[in-house]
Amino acid sequence: MKEFLKRKDIEISLKRYGIDALGAMAQGLFCSLLIGTIINTIGTQFHVPFLTKTVATIAGTEYTVGGLATAMSGPAMAVAIGYALKCPPLVLFSMITVGFAANALGGAGGPLAVLFIAILSAELGKMISKETKVDILVTPLVTIGSGIFLSWLIAPPLGKAAMWVGNLIMWATELQPFLMGILVSVLVGMALTLPISSAAICAAFGLTGLAAGAAVAGCCAQMIGFAVISFKENKWGGLISQGIGTSMLQMGNIVKNPRVWIAPILTSAITGPIATCLFRLRMNGAPVSAGMGTCGLVGQIGVYTGWVQDVALGTKDAITAFDWIGLLMISFVLPAVITPLIHMGVRRLGWVKDGDLKL
User: Fold this and answer.
1) 167-181 residues labelled b (16+ CB within 10 A) or e (exposed)
2) Rounded CA gap, 222 and 144, in Å?
3) 290, 283 in Cβ contact below 8 A?
């Protein structure tokens, strides 16, 4: 069996499923749901007719350009996962149907259902791939058949479980914004820096609202924090690559000296409750944006698109100056000020020295 799994490139491990597949799923979400949301926002805010008018009507549902991109989130996630699992072509292409089924039957918790079902279907497809003389028929049948069966069987409960957890987190944050602001900010921020996908986690649980605002704060604290405190070692290239790229670049240095992580983590514990209690920062855009921080400014775009949607729905009167101040303070100013101050104390204790943050 070990030889068979090795020949099929099936690696049952936390890295393959919890890091590679989860990270790829987030990329699939970026290229569908997130891009679709951004396109819709550009169309409505800049009054671009082509982006706001209906370009297709399918089964009575009207779609704009952004709407078409958003509708493909399930297939995009599944194909991305299949790519990360190194699926052969026939399995990879079959993942389009698997992703659509899992996302549709998973409901609001579709991303979590897609993650589990896409992994199982992909590995089953890889097992049968090129094992018969009619591979072009058997491989898609096994991959799609297993995917649709699993979607029917477990996607609804998985979706409900994900949404239950997400709703619990959001309810608890509304009830206890200070404590939950700290908890969500710290945990999601750490997930951003670890080699797992904080964006996929937020998407899987459907995090929006105040809890998502805390998640944005935690991610920004990590990215801007590391970018600023490592400026001496990494200069402008490091500032940009970490500030609007990813703080995951520091993972190697964290493994060597975990104390370099103290300042960003403590900063997220400070900015999280400030976001929830003082600025009441809500991220009501696509849930995937909550786990992005300042990466490509996706977190900030998510907050803004949420404002726009809330205004359109009548749940928010207008976008105020206080909203913008809160977003700028939480995203950029406070992490850039607080993290170096804490890091200075860590350095004085002798826990971190020059070169520890060199990329």
Assistant:
1) eebbebbeeebeebb
2) 40
3) yes
Question: In the predicted model, is pLDDT for residue 46 greater than 90?
Answer: no
Residue whose C-alpha is closest to residue 299's, from 249, 258, 342, 243: 243
Token pair belonging to 196 = 């797992």
Contact 320, 240 (CB under 8 A): no
Q: E-assigned strands of the chain? A: 56-58, 61-63
Exposure on the CB side of residue 15, measured as CA atoms within 13 A: 2
Q: How many CB atoms lie within 10 A of CB 152?
A: 12
Report whether 227 contacts 293 (CB < 8 A). Answer: no
CA-CA distance, 26 to 49, in Å (whole number)?
Answer: 30
Tokens of 17: 């499923």
d(CA 267, CA 123): 41
DSSP 132-168: STTHHHHHHHHHHHHHHHHHHHHHHHHHHHHHHHHHH
Q: What residues pair up with 56 in beta bridges, in sequence order?
A: 63
CA 207 from centroid of its chain's CA atoms = 10
Cβ atoms of residues 12 and 119 within 8 Å: no
Digit-coded pLDDT (tens) for 55-87? 999 888 999 999 999 999 999 999 999 999 999
Residue 285 backbone phi and psi in degrees, to 5: -85, -155
Q: How distant is the alpha carbon of residue 178 from its chain centre?
A: 23
Residue type, 146: S
With a CB cutoff of 8 Å and minimum separation 6, the contacts of 26 are 197, 199, 200, 203, 288, 291
Distance CA 300, CA 273 (A): 18
Confidence of residue 290 (pLDDT cuts 50, 70, 90): very high
Answer whether 12's CB lies under 8 Å from 19's CB: no
Mean per-residue pLDDT for 297-305?
A: 92
Reported as a pLDDT band with limits 50, 70 and 90, residue 40 is confident
Per residue in 167-184, pLDDT (tens digit) is 999 999 999 999 999 999
